[in-house]
Amino acid sequence: MYLTRRQRQVFDFIGNFIESNSYSPSLEEIAQGLGLSSLATVHKHLTNLSDKGLIRRHWNRGRGIEIVSAIDRPEMVNMDLTACYALPIKGHVAAGLPIEAVEMGEERLSVPGDMIRSAEQSFVLRVRGDSMIEDGIHDGDFIICERRKEARNGQVVVALVNGCETTVKKFYREGKFIRLQPANSAMAPILVHPKDVEIQGLVVGLLRKYGNI
Questions:
Q1: Would you say 116 and 85 are in contact if contact means Cβ atoms under 8 Å apart?
Q2: I need a labelling partner for 197 at 20 to 30 A (CA). Which of 12, 55, 130, 173 fits?
Q3: Model-level pTM greater than 0.70?
Q4: What is the pLDDT of residue 53?
Q5: H/E element, 13
Q6: CATH architecture designation of domain 82-207
Q7: Does domain 5-73 sit in CATH 2.40.50.140?
Q8: What mean pLDDT is predicted for residues 192-209?
Q9: Active site residue: 24, 90, 131, 170, which one?
Q10: Domain ranges in the chain?
Q11: What angle do CA 193, 132, 187 make, to 5 degrees?
Q12: What is the pLDDT of residues 160-187, one digit of tens each?
């Protein structure tokens, strides 16, 4: 996602106005506050901000502009450049035998916006184990995940096994079974009945830190 300078000004104006007045500005007030001569221009900027998930518009209300809160959308960092999102780190996930995912509190990781399609549906997990090393996923890596309930054969997924153990593997549907395939020729796949596995997300990206940082 990319915000123009004017879009950022409109977004900031709305936020500051709501903070000062406890209600949202009208189109006329936005135009006056930013020195814009056309309400159509204001409308265009609001449409762009709405399409990017930064505001919500309630058409049945006179002052119906709402800033999407940090609860509803991940924090955006450095909005004047290519956006980065501070996505929540949901815990650890096994690249080996399944282990129970461990929640990591409020820890977050900044992720470039062009790595994800929907910030609201994205989260981060830290990898434990080396069962996916042949796909370039190493112990200690951060995987960027998009929430999904379904997967196609060959996709790398985060799967909940037997209701309590989470693992990252390649997904294959084979007859009456689901095969969770490691990307490590020294390890055997996990075969489970479909009722015993729940897809929690697709792996869409990876971040790795080098050294003691």
A1: yes
A2: 130
A3: no
A4: 82
A5: helix 5-21
A6: Ribbon (2.10)
A7: no
A8: 90
A9: 131
A10: 5-73, 82-207
A11: 65
A12: 998 878 899 999 999 899 999 999 999 9
